[in-house]
Amino acid sequence: MARVTREVPQASVQEVEVFDLALTQEEKSAFRADPEKFARTLLEAEGHTVNRIVIDSSLRRTDEDDPGDDDFPCPGPLKLVHATVGHLRSTWVWICPNPI
Question: How far apart are CA 30 and CA 36, in angstroms?
C-alpha cells in the first residue's frame, strides 16, 4: 500500500510540507479512474485532514488522450504539497515533478 512520507522532516511546524508518494500499478489504476476520490481516501485513511485537493493537469491524462499507452503519466514518485496554515489549511496539491 502507498505510504506518504515527509520529504524534509523537521520538529517545528511548517506552513508547507512536501511529501513523496510512490504508487503500485493497482494504485495507479485507481488514481487514473478517479484522482480526487483516490487522493482523499488515501490521505484520510492515514489520518490527514483534507479540505481540498488539487491535481496537476499532467496527471489527468486518460487513455483517450494517449490511446495504446498504459504508462502512468508520471515516471517517478508523485510530490504532494500540503498547506498547513491559513485559508489554504489542509489543501493537498498532487504534482508530477518531471512530466514527460
Answer: 10
In the numeric block, which cell numbers belong to residue 60?
489527468
Give the phi and the psi of residue 32 in degrees, each rounded to 5. Answer: -65, -35
- Encode burial over 60-82: b for 16+ CB neighbours within 10 A, e otherwise: ebeeeeeeeeeebbbeebbbbeb
Query: Tens of pLDDT along 70-85?
Result: 578 888 889 999 988 7
Three-class SS state of 35: helix
Which of 56, 59, 61, 28 is CA-nearest to residue 42?
28
Does the reported pTM lie above 0.85?
Answer: no
* Residue ranges of domains in the chain: 15-95
- State the CB neighbour count (10 A cutoff) for residue 96: 19
For residue range 83-99, list pLDDT tens digits in order. Answer: 887 777 899 999 998 75
